[in-house]
Design goal:
InterPro entries: NA-bd_OB-fold, Ribos_protein_bS1-like, S1_domain. It holds the Pfam family S1. This is RNA-binding protein S1. GO terms for molecular function: mRNA binding; structural constituent of ribosome. The protein is an alpha+beta fold. It has two domains: 72 residues, OB fold (Dihydrolipoamide Acetyltransferase, E2P), CATH 2.40.50.140; 40 residues. It has a five-stranded mixed β-barrel. The radius of gyration is 30 Å and the shape is elongated.
Length: 148
């Protein structure tokens, strides 16, 4: 491929370098693009070396081309057939049971706890008073030692 690919096209390229953040793919003699680690596979990618190696021929979709910097963003997962891609919202979280949830887990976490607020406040106030008295006693002892 001697010319620059168009945004949205699916092309083949050769992996020429691997970086911790992605793979550099050659699309022709003078044309290279980056497949960011998040665009390598449909699953979480801890180590990109588990998915691609230097010299691999891969199909990639051209996501964007920055004309000022000549940077090309590529995606391997977007180049997969539609049957192999799952929309983000339909993927189950690893280790989580998919149940018929009526509430958001975050709402459950941040839901106020049902405790007696006045009793809770009084306990905190007692603890604060105790700590305050201990600090005041310590300061008074220091002041008395200096005055002798």
């Amino acid at each position: 491929m001697s010319e620059k690919p168009e945004v949205g096209s699916i092309v083949e390229g050769k992996v020429v370098r691997i970086k911790p953040f992605g793979a550099i793919v050659s699309l022709g003699e003078q044309v290279q693009g980056l497949v960011h680690i998040s665009q390598v596979a449909n699953t979480f990618v801890q180590d990109i070396n588990d998915h691609v190696k230097v010299g691999d021929i891969v199909k990639v979709k051209v996501l964007s081309i920055d004309p000022e910097t000549n940077k090309i963003a590529l995606s391997m997962k977007e180049a997969l057939p539609k049957e192999a891609r799952q929309p983000k919202g339909d993927r189950p979280y690893k280790g989580h049971k998919q149940e018929n949830r009526t509430t958001n887990p975050a709402e459950e976490y941040f839901k106020p706890q049902t405790v007696n607020p006045s009793a809770d406040f009084e306990e905190k106030m007692r603890e604060w008073m105790k700590q305050s008295n201990e600090r005041q006693t310590s300061l008074n002892k220091r002041a008395n030692k200096r005055s002798y």
